[in-house]
Design goal:
Layout lengths: L13 H12 L4 E6 L8 H15 L3 E6 L5 H10 L6 E5 L6 H7 L2 E4 L8 H8 L4 E4 L4 H4 L6 E4 L3 H13 L3 H12 L3 H27 L3
Parallel strand pairs: 1-2, 1-4, 2-3, 4-5, 5-6
């Protein structure tokens, strides 16, 4: 069973989200975000190289906000400089957990390239805020991302990742946003608790059945 989302995850502050968008995007047309610890297994170098390809096609009309801290921050900033993405990549540092939904709501897409997640909780938090996901196919991601419903999965190809993101920007995202929220609702903590109760009841019935069989010598 996944951890489940608190009810408050589904209630982003629209005014805060609008303020964040103005603050983070500035004059840029599009805003993306990722929430991740800045370490090797999060595969953020792949994401930055994908953004370099996107810039070559779109001319830098976007900004990506990296929310998080970690030991790779210095190296990632060096890569940003090398790729000439200084105006497109923003290192926002750590944000309070209760504010993550507002960062997601402010964004056009949530980008995720980690290959090490066992659960897609951060993806679900984004979906709960109504933000579609572009993610590299991996454990945890496959459990929650449904192509064409709440976002898209790609292989470990920077070109494919960029192409899928660019395709998302060209289409009406309303139905993806709705699909994201619908998916996230299935993971609300109350729903997860219901499933836990079902499994416990099945276990109890199986135990009682086995005990009866033992008493009857079966």
């Amino acid at each position: 069973l996944p951890t489940g989302l608190l009810k408050g995850s589904y209630l982003p502050d629209e005014e805060k989200a609008k303020l964040l968008r103005r603050e983070l995007a500035g004059e840029k047309k599009y805003l993306f975000c990722v929430v991740a610890r800045l370490e090797k297994e999060k595969n953020l170098e792949f994401l930055l190289r994908s953004m370099k390809i996107l810039k070559e096609y779109r001319g830098g009309d976007f900004r990506l906000t990296l929310i998080g801290e970690g030991p790779e921050e210095k190296e990632l900033k060096k890569l940003v400089k090398k790729l000439r993405l200084g105006d497109e990549i923003l290192f926002a540092g750590k944000a309070p957990n209760q504010e993550i939904k507002n960062y997601c709501r402010a964004s056009d897409a949530f980008l995720f390239t980690s290959l090490s997640e066992t659960q897609g909780i951060v993806l679900l938090e984004s979906m709960a805020a109504g933000t579609p996901v572009i993610a590299v196919k991996a454990t945890g991601v496959r459990d929650v991302v449904v192509n064409g419903k709440n976002g898209y999965m790609t292989q470990m190809s920077e070109m494919e990742f960029e192409n899928r993101l660019e395709s998302l920007l060209r289409q009406d995202r309303t139905w993806l946003e709705q699909g994201a929220v619908e998916t996230a609702k299935k993971y609300e903590m109350r729903e997860i608790a219901k499933w836990a109760a079902v499994y416990y009841n099945i276990a109890i019935r199986n135990r009682d059945r086995n005990s009866n069989c033992e008493r009857e010598g079966k």
